[in-house]
Design goal:
It contains 18 helices and 42 strands. It is an alpha+beta fold. The chain is globular and about 120 Å long.
Length: about 850
Amino acid sequence: MSDTIDFGIDLGTTNSAIARLNGVEAEIIKNNDGFDTTPSAVMVDRRGRLYVGRAAKTRNELDPENTCVEFKLRMGTTGQPKHFPAGDRTMEPEQLSAEVLKSLRRDVAQRTGTDITSAVITVPAAFDLSACDATKRAAGLAGLVNAPLLQEPTAAALAHGFQAEAENAFWLVYDFGGGTFDAAVINMRDGEFNVVNHRGDNFLGGKLLDWAIVERLLVPAVTREHRLTDLRRGNPRWLKEISKLKMAAEEAKIQVSRAESAEILVELRDDDGRLFELQYDLARADVERLTEPLIVRSVNLCRKALAESGIGPGDVERVLLVGGPTLSPYLRERLADPREGLGIALDHSQDPITVVARGAAVFAGGQRLGTAAPASPPPRGEYRVELEYRPMGPDPEPFVGGRVTGDGLDGCAVEFINAESRPPWRSGRIALPADGTFTATLFAERGRTNTFQIELTDAAGRRRAITPATLAYTVGVVDTQPPLTHSVGIGLADNEVEWLIRRGTPLPARRRIALRTTIGVSRGRGEGMIRIPVLEGEHHRADRNRRIGRLEVEPDQVRRDVPEGSEIDLIIVIDESRLVIARAYVPILDEEFEHAINLQTETVPDHASLAADAAAEKRRLEAVRRQAAELGDPRAAEVLARIDAERIVPDLDALVDAARVDPDAATSAGRRLLDLRAATDEAEDELEWPRLVQEAREITRTVRELVRERGNANHHRPLQATEAAIQEAITAHDADLLRQRVQEMRTLALQVLDESGDLVFLAFDELRTLQPEMRDQQEAEQLIATGRRAAQSHDLGTLRQVNAALGDLLPTPPPPPDPFSTVRRGR
């Protein structure tokens, strides 16, 4: 029996698959329907019976309310579980994924007779940590007690390179799945590979093309000939009709990858309930046109991954194609184009639909099951050996260590034999010391699994039985430490970010940081809370990153009050599967809060808030467009062109509308809104410099005129010095320094106005305009009348007193809202 996991699962958005490593070949295990893949679909009927796979997906066309597909995209979210009204059952995304995993386990049991409890499960490299955590929970619910997570691009690279002999080569994994996209730069060297860099998008995949076909081709075709009032994805009345169109679009899209057109025949009902048949010829050219913005987004991510790695397309040996959409001839042509695509040779030697499952099985073959050592020594007369070794690696002469336990080790020796090598290889007898420990260097051949017999002999040279009696090792390419694909940090007060573990850091990783609270926590009054949001992303503003969890300590959890400014030591640990553990130690309490992090905190947004946020963000984008046109900045224009080419705004509009009835669309809309915010921020950042330069030059002209008209001899020299300092900052292209110099110019202007006596009059005029906001209108009127008299008589002392009194009448600012974070940097 193998002591390695051996089974790998591709838990996909659209389809899932399971494979097993057999020697050096990874074989797909077919499901009970005889197919390589199982649709990731779940159905519950009126008797409460649950169906998974093809039957559920087919039923989705007729009964979408009681079926669920593409739930992988909601892994790690809360707020809108799937309700199956027929069976009155409600399930979270990880429960739905668990049912798919159970189905794959049953397929293995039927095909091989093995009830597996361990398997490697792949996740998109772009998956949030909360989604990885949810995947791990799904595995547990499915009975997989040992389920390491593996990034999908890594699995694909393993499938391609397991037995390859490439040395010092760069590959680019182009993984375009049903719902996610990953681009990973891989470096192969000395039989090992590592992920140099990664870029991805959790909401870029083939399903977007399916919806584009539905919304931009099929719905207009239906409504031109028939009366289906307000037929759209977001209208619950037409849920069944839209589901039928979606399934038809998905099937026809696959057909046009092999033909110039595909006929769509769908039976629908109109406003009056009358049946009619939609007949539509889907042309490949139309599909290619709709695919274009998706390809643009994917190519942009690939180019970004390459540029950040410091290499160009010419340095990359090949592009590994992964995912069903990569079967499209148009997509392959675009990728191969050096101007519009990548211009790198494409490798489609592996089946792109099952390559991830095969690679997961390869990885599983190198993962030992990790059985616990026996608590007691073996029975008298028997021997056991505990082995330390890697089951897989690039070295044909692997190192193995171990310890033999049992009675009478004096004079005993252990020997390893590779009987299948030609000629048979033996390690020679290795004498055992009293404690039974030993080391050995083995010899293994490429192209097969090398099984070494373990022989134990006593002082008389007699063979003695030992458990286990064999050791297996395979020469092959292996993965080094996986990298963290998104930076992980915490949100601080004032919307700042403290990045703890940066993107690209090899896993596992650990970081400790000192923080201080910004509010007090009162146990007696039940007030205050220590709140530390855990963020994932790269943006310098906290609210532009994904909040994947939070660490909270509430008043009822503390033994006594924690005053503002108290110290907190925070420790975050991320393992190879990207699972997170966080601990907060509060010295004033001398208490550590473990496992306080909640990684399932990103709720599915509701339609109303999505619509309001999207409208506000589009207004901000239009303001940026106007500023870019006024300033004529080419870098901002480039960012705005990318927003248009990737159809971010039209995508967002469609998703927000669909969010009325579709929780998957709501999740996608929330992420697409974040994309728009980040892109608009980028354009604003590009505009900041020309705007800052323009502001600096305008204030310089204004203050120069002010000094000429109202200044004195003491003001000319500071003016000249500040003008020179502003020009130096502009020449140095230093935004922070330029802001500082502009503020110095403003200070000089205030000084001139104050010494000339004008400032007090300007302040009085400004305060008069704020009278409607003042708390006591009668007192404000009396003060303003006094101020007018003082101004007329040029009584500056009285006017300053009036200004101070009017300022006191202004309303007290409201208390700050519930803070995003209640900590700041410590020490």
